[in-house]
Amino acid sequence: MSTMYTSFPEDFLWGGATAANQLEGGFDAGGKGLSTADVITAGTHTISRRITPVLEAGSNYPSHEAVDFYHRYKEDIALFAEMGFKVFRLSIAWSRIFPNGDDAQPNEEGLQFYDQVFAELKKHQIEPLVTISHYEAPFHLAEAYNGWADRRTIDFYVRYCEVIFNRYKDSVKYWLTFNEINILTMPFGTFMAGAIMPQGNAELGTSAAGDNEQLRYQALHHQFLASAKAVKLGHTINENFQIGCMIAYMCSYPLTCNPEDVLLAQRKDNLSNFLCSDVQVRGAYPGFATRYFKEKNIELQQEAEDGQTLRDGCVDFYTFSYYSSTCVSAAPDQEAIGGNLSMGLKNPYLQASAWDWQIDPQGLRWSLNHIYNRYGIPMMVVENGLGAVDTVETDGSIQDGYRIDYLREHVKTMGEALEDGVELIGYTPWGCIDLVSAGTGEMKKRYGFIYVDKDNEGNGTLDRSRKDSFYWYKNVIASNGTQLD
């Protein structure tokens, strides 16, 4: 058994990550209202999901049942505890607390559900890491206000925060205001992250009227303000709260040493990654954002107090998702390849997953150093993992050595980043239990240590079983990252 290094801190937060709309199910149970995720149909590896504002009979809406954590949370948390989790990243479904978003009073039954979840986590000595808004909002806010395009949504969000901060102030220490907030810099995030209504029955990330970049950045500005107000409010309610941002970090290398490629990679890094975190960590828009808005004729509607609000609401720590890397080039006709939320160019030095995400553990070390050198605040990797097709053998085993190989190399590079001086405090691989894919609604694309018996069409027993990676990760946690075989 190999010992790689002994650099992980004794209080390092090992765990796993999920999201309510991909995990919970119970979409109409316990007084929950319809969310934006609840009106998105399933897709496949190659076919986009559709947004259907009126639910269609016979269509498959993956979030409606998901993997039924709503009824099975005790079983699932017990499995997390068996692996030795120190932390569990989950999200609260906003529409379970405020069914319409603008309700006068919160839904007590929804609040009680999370009371029970947090009590179960406490029983097993697992720290919750709660994402307040993870790719869903009450659908009524989308229909009545056009979601985050309307400034009034800030107040609805802050009131939601006030309720959950007060309710769970003794149960939750770590909070994230928005999941992958930078997705709104891309058309794909318009409805999924911004709750901005498409025209007609549209595919996810598109609109019959075309992309409206002005509207996306206005919605993003409103989310920045909501996040800042939540940070300030949370610190008032409990001074021990730690409230962070969450970025979908898109690691992009210049394809060549051509200065045009280097500048293009820097520009993508700035606009895709650092625009959002600069606002949330430093409290102001960076200069490159001001130039971009000017060049694109984007004029944000701001009020006089907005600048001070952003300065007063800087986050305490930085979290991000990291799955893969891509390349960029100023030269035309280069070979493209997939990646997390965006396309890039193929790196000839890397292998790719079945979903064309390039596997690059060294990119995680580079990203950790790159981000920490900019901000110098505590960091967590709150999503990382390999989406793959898993096979249940005749003896019931799931031999996912490919997932172990992927995770092992990424844990190694986290250790190297710690040796580099990065203040990394936690690691929560994505989809620690199999759940619905956010991009396509598939079950076929699995990430978990725990297998869930369900297929793309929603068939299956929902029974849970342990994969080989379950036992591997249990040993990683028990050894605090020193034993990786």
How would you portray this structure in words?
By secondary structure, the chain is of the alpha/beta class. It has one domain (13-478): TIM Barrel. Helix content is 36%, strand content 12%. It has helices at residues 20-23, 69-83, 94-97, 108-123, 139-145, 152-167, 189-192, 213-237, 259-282, 287-295, 306-312, 361-375, 401-420, 468-478; strands at 13-17, 87-91, 127-131, 174-176, 242-248, 251-254, 317-321, 325-328, 336-337, 344-345, 379-383, 424-427, 450-452, 464-466. An 8-stranded parallel beta barrel has the order 1-2-3-4-5-7-11-12, surrounded by 4 helices. It has a two-stranded parallel ribbon with strand order 6-8. A hairpin with a 6-residue loop joins β9 (336-337) and β10 (344-345). α2 packs parallel to α4. It is globular.
Record field, number of beta strands: 14
What does the oligomeric state look like here? single chain
Overall pLDDT metric: 95
Main β-sheet: number of strands, strand sense, barrel status?
8 strands, parallel, barrel
Under the CATH scheme, which class? Alpha Beta
Q: Return the CATH architecture.
A: Alpha-Beta Barrel
What portion of residues is helical?
25-40%
Distance between the termini: 6 Å
The secondary-structure element order is: EHHEHHEHHEHHEEHHHEEEEHEHEEEH
β-strand percent reads: 5-15%
Domains, number: 1
| Overall morphology | globular
Protein name: Amygdalase
GO molecular function: beta-glucosidase activity
Family: Belongs to the glycosyl hydrolase 1 family.
GO biological process, one term: carbohydrate catabolic process
